[in-house]
Design goal:
- Helix content is 37%, strand content 11%.
- It contains four helices and two strands.
- It has a two-stranded parallel ribbon with strand order 1-2.
- Helix 2 crosses helix 4 (60-69).
Length: 91
């Protein structure tokens, strides 16, 4: 098992064959582009699997503002952290 945020064609082809799925071929956003998209209103839902997203980013205040701009934020974590205190859905 590994994490590969930009999997190649060979891996995606094999994944499709083994799992009988159609894997998405477009790459997603990196951290900075995600924050920019949240601020611009281009991200409606943010899901985090562990970690302290807001405090691990280059601009904490911009990240807090971006999270607040989302319609829904979901944080799955084993320990409470500051990112859990800032959430979307305040409309």
């Amino acid at each position: 098992m590994r994490i590969d945020h930009r999997p190649g064609k060979q891996l995606l082809d094999r994944l499709e064959k083994v799992c009988s799925i159609t894997a998405p071929r477009e790459h997603g956003l990196d951290t900075v582009d995600t924050i920019k998209a949240m601020l611009a209103g281009g991200v409606k839902v943010f899901v985090s699997m562990g970690g302290n997203f807001a405090l691990a980013t280059p601009d904490t205040e911009a990240t807090f503002a971006g999270l607040r701009n989302c319609e829904l934020t979901v944080q799955v974590s084993t320990k409470l952290n500051r990112s859990h205190l800032v959430h979307g859905g305040r409309r």
